[in-house]
Amino acid sequence: MKRSNIGKYRPFQPVRLPDRTWPDKQITKAPIWCSVDLRDGNQALPIPMNIEEKVEMFKMLVNIGFKEIEAGFPSASDTEFNFIRRLVNDNLIPDDVTIQVLVQAREPLIRKTFESLAGVKKAIVHLYNSTSPLQRKVTFRDASKDDIKNIATEAATLIQSLIPQSGDTDIRLQYSPESFSDTEIDFALEVCEAVMDVWQPTEDRPVILNLPATVEWNTPNTYADQIEWFCRNMKDRNKAIISLHTHNDRGTGIAATELGLLAGADRVEGTLFGSGERTGNLDIVVVALNMNSHGIDSGLDFSNLAEITQVFERTTRMKIADRQPYAGELVFTAFSGSHQDAIKKGMDIMKKADPDTYTWGVPYLTIDPPDIGRSYEAIIRINSQSGKGGVAFILDREFALDLPKSMHPEVGNFINNKADELGKELDIDEIKEYFDDEFVERNDELKLVQFFTVRDEQDPEVEHASIEVIYKGEPMIINGNGNGPLNALVHAMHLEGWKNFDLIDYRSHSVGLGSATESATYIQVIHKDSRKTYWGCGINTNIRRAGLLALISAYNRMNGYESKSELSSQKVEKSRKPM
Ligand code: KIV
Ligand code: ZN
Q1: Which residues are CB-contacts of 536 (< 8 A; sequence separation ≥ 6)?
Q2: Paired sense of beta strands 98-104 and 170-178, if any
Q3: How would CATH label the architecture of 31-316?
Q4: Ligand 1 atom at minimal distance to the Cα of residue 39
Q5: What is the mean pLDDT, run by run of 10 residues, along the chain of 579 residues?
Q6: Contact at 8 Å (CB) between 482 and 459?
């Protein structure tokens, strides 16, 4: 914003509450949840849901576990009205679910709203009118506080009078002083109490007072102060359910709701993924999963969040951002090497932990992704910034290749450089392909064809090996002795004069289960002159052959790299010659 324009804005006056108690509180239990997806969420969609889409969304909200669902604004349009009728006619409202209907404080709209409810078992009629100074001045053209209070109480009176005519429908009542958070707090309370005087709630049949941050003008601590002030100053607190309804204009709608709960609220209205006007409503998914992540049962089930995301995107035609908490494509993904290493270590500990008693503790992951239907697949992805541990993690998780720890840097650097060279993220199959090409199937100088061994007649510890190879394109047979084929190959190579290396490390493990089991062998050699080390890997159903393949891969890699570095040092020497 241009500095010259800043002067036209003013800070909002906070509520005076020096003895506030909410900062010392903790959230310990779930609130009553009310989804407003089908109303606040829907009214803000560029293409609002049609009736079929609304039905699909409604069924999903029921499955998630919402017991209160604002199903619409039946007096606003035929679609809204007909949707409520569809729910009734098709018997789609479970007995333990209450549908909520929103209505403005205007007589014909209130009557139409009651009409829409015929046959509904349990309903909340939600009345609202705006109360803030800005709305009084602009929208209601300088209406006085009394005018605003009268609008509310007259509508409340009409609603009260219609209840006896609404058959078997069990009707509960809700009032929202719209724009509550920028209304003078004592006036907001005055209007709410005036409505309560009309509705005469009791402890058993409390009114719902929904206190919206219709527009988020202020920091979330201010909203929490307003809620605590309201709860402490209202008369008959025990006859009201205090409900939060935050929007997200400053990006802190979730924080405002969480602090509002600390401040004493009982109920939360919001939408899936924060769908709603402008920057959206409160994202209920986040608040509920934040609770889960602290071991609190929210009463809502997001264990199949991936599926919920798909239905949401299809029915609303909105897109969930890659970084949307919990639901976004990338929110459980680590690209950075140090993050990947820490995640791998944490996951290894979790794998070994007692499933009945362990507590979650993996760096960088607030929850275990499969708990919300996300796979581990996305956790570690490889780009040029990724670390050695990430590649090893993927080879282990996807291909059961448990690389020796000291091999991780060589493989990790190789794959990261590949990603850098290609300028893109590598997928799982590409990682395996490049790993195989570089570390497993290296046949450039020396290639194994087959080998035969016979045990020494005198010394059963010794085997004589005859190994058929192709060396620099020429088929040949080399012979050597050792306590197994691997030693015999090293011996045979040394006899041929290929002895610029020592074998310094060897690991082997089986891959997979059952008859198709293969062996993976990892061998590290050191170049006698440069003292540089090189790993190779062999994978075969025959463990002895896997060992030979691993040595040959390591040897071929070594010679490949060493000859390149010889060439480059010759180049340096040449260029240093005096002219
Ligand atoms: O944001 C708001 O104030 C509303 C009211 C109608 C409750 O959606
Ligand atoms: Zn709203």
Answers
A1: 439, 440, 442, 522, 523, 524, 525, 549, 550, 551, 552, 553, 554, 555, 556, 557
A2: unpaired
A3: Alpha-Beta Barrel (3.20)
A4: 8
A5: 95 92 98 98 96 98 98 96 98 98 98 98 98 96 97 98 96 98 98 98 98 98 98 98 98 98 98 98 98 98 97 97 94 87 90 94 96 83 78 90 94 91 91 97 94 92 96 97 96 96 96 81 97 97 96 97 74 47
A6: no
pLDDT at 26: 98
Q: Which residues line ligand 1 (CB under 6 A)?
A: 40, 102, 128, 176, 178, 210, 212, 214, 245, 247
Q: Give me 545's structure tokens.
A: 């052959």
Alpha-helical regions (H) of 327-380:
337-352
The enclosing H or E element of 233 equals helix 220-233
pLDDT of residue 517: 87
Residue 458's identity, in one-letter code, is Q
**Confidence (pLDDT) at 576:** 46
Helices (H), 380-482: 388-399, 408-422, 428-435
Which residue type does 297 have? D
CATH assignment of 446-567, among 3.40.50.2300, 3.90.1150.10, 3.40.50.170, 3.30.160.270? 3.30.160.270
Partnered with residue 524 across adjacent β-strands are: 505, 535
Place of tokens 């082997």: 508
Q: Using an 8 Å Cβ cutoff, are 39 and 3 in contact? A: no
Q: How far is the CA of 141 from the centre of ligand 2 (A)?
A: 22
Please give the distance, rounded to the nearest whole angstrom, from the Cα atom of residue 130 to the centre of ligand 1.
9
**Which residues sit opposite 533 in a β-bridge?**
526
Q: Which residue has the tokens 């794998």?
A: 351
Ligand 1 mean position, distance from CA 218 (Å): 17
The Cα–Cα gap between 57 and 122 comes to: 19
Ligand 1 atom with the smallest distance to the CA of 212 is 3
- Distance from Cα 214 to the centre of ligand 1, integer Å: 5
The torsion angle over the Cα atoms of residues 313, 317, 322 and 328, rounded to 10 degrees, is -20
Instruction: Name the phi and psi angles at 404, rounded to 5.
Output: -60, 145
Count of CB atoms situated within 10 Å of the CB of 268:
24
Tokens of 57: 């969304």
Q: Look-up: residue for tokens 């074998």?
A: 503
Q: Which of 245, 248, 249, 278 to mutate to test the pocket of ligand 1 (most atoms within 8 A of CB)?
A: 245
Query: What is the whole-number distance in angstroms between the Cα of residue 212 and the centre of ligand 1?
Result: 6
Q: Which two tokens stand for residue 331?
A: 């929110």
Q: Which residue has the tokens 């040449």?
A: 574
| Residue nearest atom 2 of ligand 1, based on CA coordinates | 214
Q: How far is the CA of 189 from the centre of ligand 2 (A)?
A: 19
Which atom in ligand 1 lies closest to the alpha carbon of residue 277? Answer: 1
Bridge partner residues of 539 (DSSP): 520
Q: What are phi and psi of 461, to 5 degrees?
A: -75, -15
Domain regions of the chain by residue span: 31-316, 337-433, 446-567
